[in-house]
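To whoever is on call:

I kicked off a structure prediction for a single chain this morning and the downstream step that reads the tokens threw a length-mismatch warning. I double-checked the sequence; it's 359 residues and nothing unusual in it as far as I can see. Pasting both halves so you can look.
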Amino acid sequence: MFIVSPKWVYLSNKKIESNKSLLIDRSIIADILVDNKIDKTYQKMPRIHYQNHLMVPTFSESYIDISDCDSQLKYSRKISSLFQSGVTKVQVVANDYKKMLKYVSLPNINISNKITLDSSNCTYHVIRDMLKTIDFYKSDDSRVFSINLLNIINFEKDLIIKISSICNELNLLIDIHLSEINNLSNSEINKLFKFWEEINLLNNCVVHDFLTSQKLIQNYISKYKILMLVKYSELLDVENIKLLLSLKPNGNRYALISDLENTYKLYDIFKVINIFSENQYAFDDRMILKSVTSNTLDFFAETSPSGVIEKDSLASFNIFDINSKRLLWRNENYPALADLDNQSLTAVWSSGECVNIKT
């Protein structure tokens, strides 16, 4: 066992605190310690100090397209780039999921896989083949699968019923792209959601394109409290940012995703949201952090909870050198999430193992 002592730590995804340390037992946070009691009880325990640093949970990338990775080398580079940004959990999607499964995972990264089913070529044979693949990996607890449906309104009715039944039985999440139904009439949308409800498709689904969907579709998604996947690229639009800021925390959960992006944009979003908050837009920036931590847990297989720094969670956290950015730092001032950036990321801890990003 050993102790990790940052200057500040983002505890329980609620607030930044000082004078707190983590007692680490292998891959688990065994306890949260108050600094002034450590010398009395743990004086002989090995201790790692981060004198001017902020500790936050490591991040998740819940949907990144790797169809452009036609080799192990390109795949490794793409995943490694995410790790260098503080990401330790990645959900990958590709047009050819079998090729995707052949790539060797990188150390300290938790990978899950989305299997794409496109109505243009989906048959019962394709579904059977998919089930064989999932069955092949069923003894591997580290493998988590979900289903990415493309051109959903063109699926034959019996096929979509079959897919929904399989996903409910195997507890597989289903990705629905709302842009594919956005041009339907109100009556068509009402009929479609009624059908989806009847076949229990909405039980296990997540949705894309919420911010750019028509109001009726948004109302349905809010009604069923479905997790929304929001692309960083969607937040280049001011109106989309305003809509995101207006979402109710208890009713609208979302996860930020890269999709086709080759650069991790989370740190840019922290700063953009901070600007809006300074201009009278009341917003809790913890929602952004949750969108890449605790809101993403269903996508990944883990023996212990993660995405939050608290007792009994995985010891997975990022260390940021806050003083490296501020020449005139006052000790009584607490950092904010908007202070985070890739340049100040010093170390990434994944399940109790540390990888130094900068020394």
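Update from on-call: the warning came from a stale cache, not from the record. Cleared it. Sanity check on the structure: The chain has a mean pLDDT of 91.
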